[in-house]
TrEMBL record:
InterPro entries named among the record's database cross-references: NAD(P)-bd_dom_sf, Sc_DH/Rdtase_CS, SDR_fam
Organism phylogeny: Bacteria, Pseudomonadati, Planctomycetota, Planctomycetia, Pirellulales
Superkingdom of origin: Bacteria
Family indicated by similarity: Belongs to the short-chain dehydrogenases/reductases (SDR) family.
Organism: Rhodopirellula sallentina SM41
Name of the protein this chain belongs to: Short-chain dehydrogenase/reductase SDR
Amino acid sequence: MGFDLKEKVVLVTGANRGIGKVILEEAFARGASKVYAAVRRVESADDLVAKHGDKVVAVHLDLDDPQSIVDAAKTATDVDVVVNNAGVLRLQKALDPEAVETLQFEMNANVYGLMRVAQAFAPVLKANGGGALVQLNSVASVKAFPDFSTYCASKAASYSITQSLRESLKEQNTQVVSVHPGPIDTDMGSDAGFDEAASPEVVAIAIFDAIANGQFHVWPDPMAVQVNSAYQSFAEQVVETSMEESPA
């Protein structure tokens, strides 16, 4: 599996800033014919529309609002690639009094949001020949950090769902890509307290390289590469291998 992005239609959640905005620009650099900028506030994509004209279509999509996701899928009926980039992070330790509420907030966007996007857009991708579904996970999905432990838990859950989607969508010829960045130079990376962070461009480039090459896992930056060096054997022998026996 894997395909060229030329003349393809892409949808990016959270496309108005950070990694999402760079993903949108990289999609055009790869020859995409149109990108849906799926954002909570449509006006936040005005600069992208001004720059790219009718090649950018701003659509309302809020991971906390299930109906907005359904409506976005009804609008973007020609989409070939869906990149679920949007997510939330709060600095919260597991023993903090607000930790349960924070985890509920992060799970709603980072996990339930992914599931809602997949449920809404899988039929669209199938109708258009299969395409690809890309999920922005994190190195935090395989390694917990105590200062934002609830975020790590939500990303571990989203990674698990992404693995299941890979198997479920294979029969409709939809490629699933799981992206695991380390610290990236964005507002979210700054909020997490990372002083040294990689450029968002490395993530965008790695995503579309993975689509072209039919890869599932993407480890785009120096910290991610370091984590993958230890994780790769497990990923290849367990995660990426079909296991016929049901779990006990």
